[in-house]
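Record type: monomer structure entry
Structure origin: computed from sequence
Chain ID: A
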Amino acid sequence: MKNGYFRIRNPFAAFRKTMLRRMLVVSLLASVIPVIAVGVSSYLFSSSAIRNEVDQANARVLKHASYSIDSTLQRVRSNALQMLLGSFFSSNLTELKWNNYSGFYSSLFKNLSSLQNSNAEVGQIVMYIAEDDYLISPDGGGRKLRSEEERSQLRGWMASSEAMNWVHEPFAFLPALSNGTVGVTLVCQVPFQSSEPIGLLFVQLAPSFLQENMTKYSVYEGEQSFILDDKGEWVVSSGGQKVPDGLFEKVREQAASGSPFSFRWDNRDYLVTSHISSFNGWTYLDMVPIRELNAKSRGIAVITVAIIVIFLLLGGAATAWGTRRVYRPIEHLVSLVRGGRPGDPLADEIGYVQTRWAELNRETSGLQAELREQLPAIREAYALQFLQGHFAHYTLEQLEGMFERYEVPFRQAHAVFVLTYDQSPGSGSRFKASDKELIVFTIKNIAQDMLEQSGGKGIAVNLLNDKIAVWLWEDTDDSEDWYTGVHQFAKQLIDILSDYLKLPVTVGAGDSAGPPHEMPMRFGQAAMALRARFWAGTGQVIRSGDTGEAEPKPYPYPFEIEAGLEQALRVGDAAEAERQLERFAVYAQETLRETERIRTAYYQLMTATMRVAFIMNLKLEDLGDPSATHIDPYRQMNECRSIGELNDWFREQLVKPIARKMAQRQNQEYERTLDIAASFIQENYHLDLSLDQVAETCGLSPPYFSKLFKRVMGVSFIEYLTAYRIDQAKIWLRSTELSVTEVAEKVGYQPKNFIRVFKKQTGCTPGQFREAESGPT
């Protein structure tokens, strides 16, 4: 049937390769996509609005529940604290118990009962008395501890650094709660904030209190509520379920944004709202099934789909009619370009025009390629002459014509900086000192490659004096911000060149970017900035504005820093001497800012340093270098090529050796002084000795003697005297039959103070020590 009369034709064949088909597709997409986007966005907006309302409501509920629970915890803690600070617990409980054993426990029972009766939320109250190993509560009376597990747990809380704290953990001596709930318990040391507590108070809240606060606000079917402690452990939930795995970590991730999030649990998606209490760090969670939330938006979804379908049908019809009318002028234009010649009706209408345009482009590209092969060398030669000021007599119009000829934009921001290197012996460079041309060639190529790789526009120019200039330009409205980027590029270039050459590379830059006709002036500023690298240092970007003013200033020598250095050397304080030397270097770099001024200042400082060595009877050979007498320090200083090298030489050759020698002398004097103090203490420890008496014996002021004693002996004067007296007391107790009172007098203590200090130092009383030393009879 291919050649038959009734041949079947494709009705869309005319649109297969024509411009009309493309226009129709674009028009349909332009009309369909906005309709679908509006429909989908309206549905998403309604769902999001419902979720936001529910989240805000749940957030208010959680805040209210948190406030209610936190208020109760604070009130219970306040009542417990009020009881512990009352007259009974503020007295000497140990003495009270031994004087009136039954009265002590009776008063204790009354106070605990009063605390429980005044707080309806409290479920259990238990008091632990460590010395009796006894538990007492208003409900269960008293009992001895039953297991070592209970004792171990209680010892841990007795030794805790926290005197009062709400905890969430099981206690073996408290009754177990239902549903596996651990319970919330207030643990207090008794007496409160005592360094030696005699017991612990446990106040456990009733589990029904937390359960009721989490269930009375539930609205949606399947809604779940949880309370987690600050470590993510389950405290209570509305239905008694354990917290889902991974929920607490998800809450912590979302805590910074403060927005709700979705969580899948037990094959259901939930909207989770959280609130973290500022009182104790508990996390309050509410989980609402998303299916229940979306029930209200399903009707909106049905209406939205119907609207989308209707508008799509209307938009498709209008697009087909409008596209055909727009295409008619294009069809007429193509027929005119063909000039009435026949063409394939199924071919692209503008194919002929594209073919002719491609032929012209190929011819043009060939000519441009030939020109560009010669352009880099020509443009570099022009850039060198321009930066050196050979076109200073040109007008702006003439310069713009020259820039256009060499393809350099004229109406843009321009900047220039100059690179150089410093050949230093022993630097480990891969080049020799005779490879200057090779080094300059390498610097130029690396700079040009980095410029092209970073997407910058500019040119690297060989200045024929072992330096390279980099001229950059950019079309920007903020030249200062762009110039900051130029500095970053220069710093990166320094790092790469220094790493490759193994030589220090320095960049000199002008004050700022500017119009192109100012580049010769900026180039001069950059060249001048390089001369300041002696005191400013190599391996960095130096701006001309950072090198100081051009007018000479008076010579402001820092005499106060020199005096501070001399004083530190006299007392052998190496750290202070080095700090003063660093201050001198910073001052010289920031204030003097000229090479000759800096050298002169260091000559003067060296004279002052040598004067200190002479006064202290130190010679150059005493400073650690036997050949120092044959070395000229002034010549060594002249060989330093930067302020950093100058400062390092000064520190290593003068400051450190002098300070070390003086410190050795000082330490010998300190040891002799403290030997006198120790002998005086050993001879008079039985007397009422004071720091002032011993300091006067050594001929020192009390504050200075105290600091010196602490630094050399490692302990304070009081600690040393106390330890020596207790050691002597042990000897008296071990080897004599003297009473504790007599021993106390022999070591310089009142009997009551002696027993307290002895127990604090040894962990036992003098009587217990004597009994332990004598052994079983």
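Annotation 1: Residues 54-293 form a domain with the Beta-Lactamase fold (CATH 3.30.450.20).
Annotation 2: The chain is about 55% helix and 10% strand.
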